[in-house]
Design brief:
single chain; mainly beta; Histone H3 K4-specific methyltransferase SET7/9 N-terminal domain; 2 domains; 14-stranded antiparallel sheet; 14 strands
C-alpha cells in the first residue's frame, strides 16, 4: 500500500502497487480531506468502477473504465448535484444512448451514438422545456428532414439534408 500526503498531513492518494504499477483500489483526496476520487486498477490501468467528487462533496461523475478508457454507462453531475449527462461508451468512444440536461433539470438533448458517431433521431430542447430542434443522423451526418422551433413552439425552419455530403 502506497500513501502520499499533503503538507497539512491529509491523505492525497492511496493505493496498491504490484510490479511497479498501480493495482487494486486507489483513492484520491483534496487537501481539505474531502474524497476526490476512487478507481480500480489492473496492471497499471484503470479497469473497473470509478467515481469522482467535487470539492463540495457532491458527486461529479461515476462509471466504469476498461483498459484506461471510459466504458459502459457514465453519469455526470453539476456541482449542485443536478444530473448533467448520461453517456454510454465502448472502449472510450460514445456508443449507445446519450442525454444531457440543463442545471435546472430540464433535458437539453438526447440521441444515440454508434462507434463515436451520432445516429438515428436526435432532439434538443430550450432551457424552459420547449422543443428546439429534431432530426436524424446517419454515420455522424445530418440526414433527412430537420425541424426547428422557437421558444413559443412555432416552426421557424425546416431543412432537408443529404447524408452523403
Amino acid at each position: 500500500m502506497v500513501t502520499e500526503t499533503y503538507h497539512n498531513g491529509q491523505k492525497k492518494e492511496e493505493g496498491g502497487i504490484l510490479n511497479d504499477r498501480k493495482e487494486g483500489n486507489w483513492a484520491w483526496w483534496y487537501a481539505s480531506g474531502q474524497k476526490r476520487g476512487e478507481a480500480i486498477y489492473s496492471n497499471g490501468k484503470k479497469n473497473g468502477s470509478a467515481a469522482y467528487w467535487f470539492k463540495n462533496g457532491n458527486l461529479d461523475r461515476k462509471g466504469e473504465f476498461r483498459k484506461d478508457r471510459l466504458h459502459h454507462e457514465w453519469t455526470f453531475w453539476y456541482p449542485s448535484s443536478e444530473k448533467r449527462s448520461i453517456a454510454t461508451y465502448l472502449r472510450g468512444q460514445f456508443h449507445g444512448p446519450y442525454g444531457r440536461w440543463y442545471e435546472n433539470g430540464q433535458q437539453e438533448m438526447e440521441g444515440q451514438y454508434h462507434r463515436g458517431e451520432r445516429t438515428g433521431e436526435w432532439s434538443w430542447w430550450y432551457e424552459l422545456g420547449q422543443l428546439r430542434s429534431r432530426g436524424f443522423y446517419k454515420r455522424g451526418k445530418r440526414t433527412g428532414k430537420w425541424t426547428f422551433w422557437d421558444t413559443k413552439g412555432k416552426i421557424t425552419q425546416e431543412m432537408n439534408f443529404n447524408s452523403s455530403g
